[in-house]
């Protein structure tokens, strides 16, 4: 028997999701998404990986908006039992999770911060984009998750990443305005990943938890902002639908860092995105928040929120 979504979540969703999209979003919560993965270009080109997989009988399709990403609609276990997977030629990752690194646009000699990095999906993606050059500092507070991160770095053949074990909210103290670009893909209430056939995916959901996570996310984002040089880019992302953890965090930073930050209007050609909310519960957000965007849950994509920020003035005396 399929469980039901929490009534309070369902009621909030009706106010968050556009009416024309609502039924599709609700339906997506009962659809198991296909396995998606990303080639590790440090070890093999995408075309060669596709050829090797198809020669072994795997039918895979490529993404039009990210040619290094693949969809596989059969059992994930078949894929993860291959030597190609075990030797790090590809990395199983949700499509939505691949978006933030593409918008951060890391380049070969950049100094990059991944402030809440474990288990390393986006860290290894950025390292591959950079050709394992430059410098990536991957931080996380969970020692167990850091062990997974280190294992993933080893399997993927990444050598350009140094690992830190620090509370993200105070990370800036050691690295004031040091990084060219920073990623703050924060822990969240996971609403974009709810799956009705696995009630544990939403068993711990509550309004109180949303508020706690939103408060934590505000300070993680500000820490990433303070760790980034003037002129640098910061990407903030979550896999939740809650405005308190999404638009409201950005609105808070725009107020807190007024004059120091601006939102960049970045999109990925071919990727379906949906407008951010302009306000919530009677509060209107800063006009710049409309440049951020959402990915609505679908048969293929997890729900996601992404904001791209540019640091235009130093804030070292303000944190």
Task: Give an overview in words.
By secondary structure, the chain is an alpha/beta fold. It has a single domain (7-33, 94-311), classed as Rossmann fold (3-Layer(aba) Sandwich), CATH 3.40.50. The protein contains ten helices and 15 strands. It has helices at residues 7-16, 19-28, 46-55, 76-80, 83-86, 99-104, 121-129, 143-156, 207-226, 247-256; strands spanning 35-39, 60-62, 69-72, 90-92, 111-114, 135-139, 161-164, 179-185, 228-238, 261-264, 274-275, 279-280, 283-284, 293-295, 304-311. The strands form three sheets. Strands 5, 6, 7, 8, 9, 10, 11, 14 and 15 form a nine-stranded mixed β-sheet that branches. Helix 8 (143-156) links the parallel strand 6 (135-139) and strand 7 (161-164). It is globular, with a radius of gyration of 19 Å.
Topology:
Blueprint: H1 7-16, H2 19-28, E1 35-39, H3 46-55, E2 60-62, E3 69-72, H4 76-80, H5 83-86, E4 90-92, H6 99-104, E5 111-114, H7 121-129, E6 135-139, H8 143-156, E7 161-164, E8 179-185, H9 207-226, E9 228-238, H10 247-256, E10 261-264, E11 274-275, E12 279-280, E13 283-284, E14 293-295, E15 304-311
Parallel strand pairs: 5-6, 5-8, 6-7, 8-9
Antiparallel strand pairs: 1-3, 1-4, 2-3, 9-15, 10-15, 11-14, 12-13, 14-15
Helix pairs in contact: 9-10
């Amino acid at each position: 028997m399929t469980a039901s979504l929490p009534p309070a979540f369902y009621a909030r969703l009706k106010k968050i999701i556009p009416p024309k999209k609502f039924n599709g979003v609700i339906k997506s919560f009962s659809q198991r998404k296909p396995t998606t993965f990303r080639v590790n270009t440090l070890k093999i080109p995408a075309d060669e990986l596709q050829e090797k997989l198809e020669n072994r009988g795997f039918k895979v399709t490529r993404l039009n908006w990210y040619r290094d990403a693949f969809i596989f609609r059969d059992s994930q276990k078949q894929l993860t039992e291959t030597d190609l997977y075990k030797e790090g030629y590809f990395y199983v990752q949700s499509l939505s999770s691949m978006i933030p690194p593409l918008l951060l646009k890391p380049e070969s000699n950049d100094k990059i911060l991944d402030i809440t990095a474990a288990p390393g999906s986006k860290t290894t993606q950025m390292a591959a984009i950079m050709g394992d050059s430059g410098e990536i500092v991957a931080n996380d507070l969970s020692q167990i998750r850091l062990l997974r991160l280190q294992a993933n770095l080893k399997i993927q053949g990444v050598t350009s990443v140094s690992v830190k074990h620090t509370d993200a909210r105070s990370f800036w103290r050691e690295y004031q305005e040091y990084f060219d670009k920073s990623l703050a893909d924060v822990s969240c209430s996971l609403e974009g990943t709810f799956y009705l056939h696995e009630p544990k995916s939403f068993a711990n959901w509550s309004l109180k938890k949303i508020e706690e996570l939103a408060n934590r996310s505000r300070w993680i984002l500000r820490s990433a902002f303070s760790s980034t040089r003037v002129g640098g880019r910061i990407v903030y992302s979550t896999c939740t639908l809650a405005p308190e953890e999404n638009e409201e965090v950005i609105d808070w930073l725009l107020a807190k860092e007024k004059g120091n930050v601006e939102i960049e209007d970045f999109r990925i050609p071919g990727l379906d995105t949906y407008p951010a909310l302009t306000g919530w519960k009677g509060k209107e957000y800063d006009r710049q928040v409309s440049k951020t965007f959402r990915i609505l849950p679908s048969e293929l994509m997890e729900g996601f929120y992404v904001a791209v920020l540019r640091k235009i003035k130093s804030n070292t005396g303000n944190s």
